[in-house]
Amino acid sequence: MHTENLNIEMTEVIATPAEVKSQLPLSDDLATTITNHRHILQNILNGTDARLFVVVGPCSIHDPEAALDYAQKLKKLAHEVSDQIVLVMRVYFEKPRTTTGWKGLINDPHLNGSFDIVTGLHKARKLMLDLVSLGLPIASEALDPISPQYLADLISWSAIGARTTESQTHREMASGLSSPVGFKNATDGSLKVAIDALQAVSSPHSFLGINQKGQVAIVRTKGNAYGHVVLRGGGGKPNYDPETVNHCVLALTEKNLPANIVIDCSHENSNKDPSKQEEAFTSAINQRIAGNNAIIGMMLESNLGWGNQQIPKNLADLEYGVSITDACIDWDNTERIIKQAANEIKARS
To answer: Which of 4, 200, 321, 334 could form a disulfide with 302 if both were Cys (CB 3.0 to 4.6 A apart)?
Structure first.
């Protein structure tokens, strides 16, 4: 009689983080670039850099070629607005699912349900190296406690999503991340879980994980001093309005936490309607210009093309540069919105 693995069809041993990194290494020069990007974001969080940062890019990347095309445009825009805004490319490879659906490039790189995770990890790391080589800081979501061992050395800003902010596993993992990390409010709009997470992430933790050799290990962390809240709406309504933002500031202050807030202009702050992201973005900019320095950044879901599409049976029918997950604004509107914001900040400074 067997009592374990009754619902496991099979297990497959994959390359260790060290093996993948040996095949796709991070050079000393790129490591310096990433360190500099992280320092910039840390300085914004510390209040010694007065600029805003904006995490902008596709909801989830499914086409590395289109992502590089987008990145080249973003790099040019980043240079143009750099005095007012630091642009960080959103590079999400894993898609949390409420029920079922495509789970992201790492899990399903061929978009066919084959779950070739080995190829997915290599594709993800290769793309991140290419993006860092362009000089862009990159952001990603830490969705599980294993994949950061393969990718976290390349990331300048991390997010913990609304579905996992309450997870102790994710809080412990985030306490050991080398980058600043934003915790989203819960899907019902509650701020408490994010604020609780900030208290947890700043503290040391010990937990089971894996090391670079793929061995099960006790991981002991120092705590992450650069956690902050991300307001993404919830419970069917937005939460970027001045009253809610001020309420969040008070809640953070009461817990002796830094009053640093990022406004996620997508998700329920736009009711997943890409045309409403601009409204949330403009509100955040206006609040910042009016003197609310607690708003230190924003997030935009943006792609080359507008909207989204279903994965077709014939993958050759995929529309280039259009999201296959949440609907995004297109590049032309992204560029317009960010340039306009930079000009307004400059004019009123």
So the answer is: 334
| pLDDT tens, position by position, 310-347 | 999 999 999 999 999 999 999 999 999 999 999 999 99
308: tokens are 């989204």
Give the pLDDT of residue 99. 59
Query: Can you say how many angstroms the Cα of residue 50 is from the centroid of all Cα atoms in its chain?
Result: 21
Q: 284, 265 in Cβ contact below 8 A?
A: yes
Q: Which amino acid is at 327?
A: A
Residues 84-116 as b or e (16 or more Cβ within 10 Å = b): bbbbbbbbbbbbbeeeeebbbbbbbbeeeeeee
Residue 252: which CATH number? 3.20.20.70
Please name the amino acid found at residue 270: S
Whether 244 is in a domain gets the answer: yes
Closest CA to 311 of 59, 102, 94, 95: 102
* Spacing of C-alpha 28 from chain mean position: 24
Domain that holds residue 341: 17-348
Q: What is the pLDDT of residues 96-142, one digit of tens each?
A: 765 568 899 999 999 999 999 999 999 999 999 999 999 999 999 99
The answer to whether the predicted template modeling score (pTM) of the entire model surpasses 0.85 is yes
Residue 239 within a domain: yes
Q: For residue 3, tell me if it sits in a domain.
A: no
Q: How far is CA 300 from CA 123, 232, 277, in A?
A: 24, 11, 7
CB neighbourhood size of 9 (10 A)? 5
Whose tokens are 């003197």? That residue is 291
Angle at 344 between CA 341 and CA 346, to 5 degrees: 110
What's the Cα-to-Cα distance from 252 to each of 185, 193, 197, 249, 347, rounded to whole Å?
13, 12, 11, 5, 31
Quick one: three-class SS letters along 87-112?
A: EEEECCCCCCCCCCCCCCCCCCCCCC
Q: Classify 158 as helix, strand or coil.
A: strand
From the CB of residue 226, how many other CB atoms can be counted at a distance below 10 Å? 22
